[in-house]
Specification:
It is a single chain. This protein is α+β, with helices and mostly antiparallel strands. It has three domains: 122 residues, Alpha-Beta Plaits (2-Layer Sandwich); 95 residues, Transcription elongation factor, GreA/GreB, C-terminal domain (Chitinase A, domain 3); 160 residues, Trigger factor, domain 2, CATH 1.10.3120.10. Helices cover 47% and strands 19% of the residues. The chain contains 13 helices and twelve strands. Strands 1-2-3-5-4 form a five-stranded antiparallel sheet. Strands 7, 8, 9, 10 and 11 form a five-stranded antiparallel sheet that branches. Strand 4 and strand 5 form a beta hairpin. The longest helix has 35 residues. 15% of the residues are buried.
Length: 439
């Protein structure tokens, strides 16, 4: 939410009077009146600082009389004094108003009026501040409970079939080409005009069913073992949104290595014991428990998403302009690269930029709110949690990560920071879920 009209506040202390003007994009202007006492103190310190840096005949550094320092190095003292007034006045003002800069490099002294050591000084300093985040009371949040999902016989049988497939024996088909409902082992190579052929899949088993992408099915069905087919990927009118969003057009070579079909084991006492169950009834109980756990994970994720939506929709605040611009620029560039790789022109640059800005605004909004909630309720990420998430992302055992980090300094700090941020946000969402009212 942008701040259309500036918000002006007055602050007063023994050393400073400060007028604060808050503008859109978290811009802050401090109009500071520095008391004569502070100005004079800064002048004394400036003389002392210069005296430690210069030499005068007959005196050790730092021990020359003030009058001689002022007489011989007036310009040095004046520069040092003005800088000290600026720094002391600004630091005292920050302690008073408690509105801190987002980045010290962005601090700008617009006006500095310093006349004599016995008079007040006027400073006008502007900078981009940390956003002012509203307080969040987790216990006051109300969330709608996701619908409880009943476990169907179809789901139970699908999981059972997955287990049976894992323990199946496979028979080789040699007397006919591949057809619907067969399984084939294939090599798939990506063919690009300006690059060497790149293997994507080597002797991988693929099921020929309704889930197989139509372009790939067209290169397999009707082909015999040893056949090599080439073709381009394509979408159909029935392609769903997920397929369309991840689709990258290209040319591919497919080699049929074997055609095979499974012989599934019977679901009996021997099979149940092989799986680790006492009997078939116990096996089905275990399957139900597995599905139930997966449903609970899905329900927790749905509640997390409800928390995210609630926080973004109900706790508005202004975001730092440069931070939002930088995040938007980064996301916009990524979207352009993705659009180019897919060779699609469905969205204009303006549409992509608008998407990038909306996503950036929501991401930053959520980050700041979750950080405030984490500070309020003392939610933190342990090293063990961070290592666990990093290890999962890098696909290595967690206990190997410390040694890997020592041996691989090329693992970027940005990766650790991103994993830390995501883990903290997930923990905050879980905390809100556990303490909110769910009806």
């Amino acid at each position: 939410m942008s701040q259309e009209t500036p918000d002006v506040q007055q602050f007063q202390s023994e050393t400073n009077s400060v007028q604060v003007t808050r503008e859109s994009g978290c811009r802050v202007k401090l109009e500071i009146q520095v008391a004569p006492k502070t100005v004079k103190s800064a002048h004394k310190k400036a003389i002392k600082a210069v005296s430690k840096e210069v030499s005068l005949p007959g005196f050790r550094k730092g021990h020359a009389p003030e009058a001689l320092i002022l007489k011989n190095y007036a310009g040095n003292v004046d520069r040092e004094w003005r800088q000290m007034v600026l720094e002391m006045g600004f630091q005292d003002a920050l302690k008073l108003v408690k509105i801190y800069p987002l980045d010290r490099d962005g601090i700008k002294a617009d006006v500095v009026t310093i006349t004599t050591p016995d008079e007040a000084a006027s400073l006008v300093i502007s900078y981009e501040a940390e956003p002012s985040i509203p307080d969040v009371d987790c216990a006051a949040i109300e969330l709608k409970s996701p619908e409880t999902k009943e476990i169907s016989d179809k789901e139970m049988n699908e999981v059972l079939d997955q287990i049976r497939f894992y323990h199946a024996e496979w028979t080789i088909v040699e007397d006919r080409p591949a057809q619907e409902n067969d399984h084939v082992r294939v090599d798939i190579v990506s063919l690009k005009d300006d690059q060497e052929p790149a293997p994507l899949v080597t002797n991988e088993r693929i099921a020929i069913n309704e889930n197989l992408q139509p372009w790939l099915k067209s290169l397999i069905v009707g082909k015999n073992v040893g056949d090599i087919s080439e073709g381009e990927s394509f979408l159909t009118d029935t392609s769903d949104e997920a397929t369309r969003s991840s689709f990258v057009p290209g040319k591919y070579r497919v080699t049929i290595n074997t055609i095979e079909n499974p012989v599934l084991p019977e679901v009996d006492q021997a099979f149940a014991e092989k799986i680790g169950a006492k009997d078939v009834e116990d096996l089905m109980t275990q399957i139900r428990g597995k599905i139930d756990r997966e449903n609970n994970v899905a329900r927790r994720q749905e509640l997390r998403e409800l928390v995210e939506t609630h926080l973004i929709d109900n706790y508005a605040f202004d975001l730092p302009k440069t931070l939002l611009e930088n995040e938007t620029k980064f996301r916009f560039q990524k979207k352009q690269e993705t659009n180019k790789a897919k060779q699609q022109e469905e969205k204009s640059a303006e549409d992509l930029k608008q998407e990038a800005e909306t996503e950036s605004r929501q991401t930053l909004h959520l980050f700041y709110l979750c950080r405030k909630i984490a500070n309020k309720y003392k939610i933190s990420v342990t090293n063990q949690e961070l290592y666990s998430q990093l290890a999962r992302m890098l696909n290595i055992p967690a206990e190997q990560l410390p040694e890997l980090i020592k041996a691989r300094p090329d693992i970027p700090q940005e990766l650790s920071a991103a994993v830390y941020s995501k883990t903290l946000i997930d923990k905050v969402k879980d905390y809100v879920v556990d303490h909110a009212k769910i009806a």
